[in-house]
């Protein structure tokens, strides 16, 4: 079955600094990959997704992610973090019918 | 109005009690899912349904059952709740077809089993 690893449980960045959240997946074929964000007390909101084609995908709120097949990675990036980006971020992969999530990375933004 | 709603939003129950969590959607999607979220574990799939007559077990179905009453409704039951079922439960939906893998989530139900 497919699986996802998010190596960083918690990341702290200063407001205005750049951000990269790591995601590694395991799946034998070309996966469908997703990043979701969960604000405190809220459900999950889709940031972006990769199905095929251009390996650099743009999402909402200024986020982007790059699919690297050779590294089995789908890292999320943002050039300048805002205080409102503080949340938990989940990477997910869909293989044969069901979606598997990583354990999540909690982002703290310092003033 | 929200596209995916869950009731109740919060629930406290006792060990051994039967409890039902409900999910409704107005997105017109065929596929519905139930997940639980535990700190440090992310979301794990309990059950999923690709249409009213198609229900499948997910990663962690033991201790749970589901009912797909209509295209728009998908209920999760805990027949005899136990404390380790204390978690945040999410319902999600997706469409069939090319974008069928994109899931849309409800706001969650926080369940505490004493």
Quick recap:
The complex is a heterodimer of chains A (about 110) and B (about 110). Chain A contains no helices and 12 strands.
Summarize the helices and strands and which ones pair or pack.
The complex is a heterodimer of chains A (111) and B (114).
Chain A: E1 3-5, E2 10-14, E3 19-21, E4 24-26, E5 32-38, E6 44-50, E7 56-58, E8 64-68, E9 73-78, E10 87-94, E11 99-101, E12 105-110
Parallel strand pairs in A: 2-12
Antiparallel strand pairs in A: 1-4, 3-9, 5-6, 5-10, 7-8, 8-9, 10-11, 10-12
Chain B: E1 4-7, E2 10-13, E3 19-25, E4 31-38, E5 42-51, E6 54-57, E7 65-70, E8 73-78, E9 87-94, E10 104-105, E11 109-113
Parallel strand pairs in B: 2-11
Antiparallel strand pairs in B: 1-3, 3-8, 4-5, 4-9, 5-6, 7-8, 9-10, 9-11
Characteristics of this structure?
heterodimer, A: 111 residues, mainly beta, six-stranded mixed sheet, globular, B: 114 residues, seven-stranded mixed sheet
Can you offer a commentary on this structure?
The complex is a heterodimer of chains A (111) and B (114). Chain A has no helices and 12 strands. Chain A has strands at 3-5, 10-14, 19-21, 24-26, 32-38, 44-50, 56-58, 64-68, 73-78, 87-94, 99-101, 105-110. In chain A, the strands form 3 sheets. In chain A, strands 2, 5, 6, 10, 11 and 12 form a 6-stranded mixed beta sheet that branches. Chain A starts with a strand and ends with a strand. The termini of chain B are far apart. Chain B contains no helices and 11 strands. Helix content of chain B is 0%, strand content 56%. Chain B has strands at residues 4-7, 10-13, 19-25, 31-38, 42-51, 54-57, 65-70, 73-78, 87-94, 104-105, 109-113. Chain B is mainly β and 114 residues long. Chain B is globular. Classes of the chains: A mainly beta (111), B mainly beta (114).
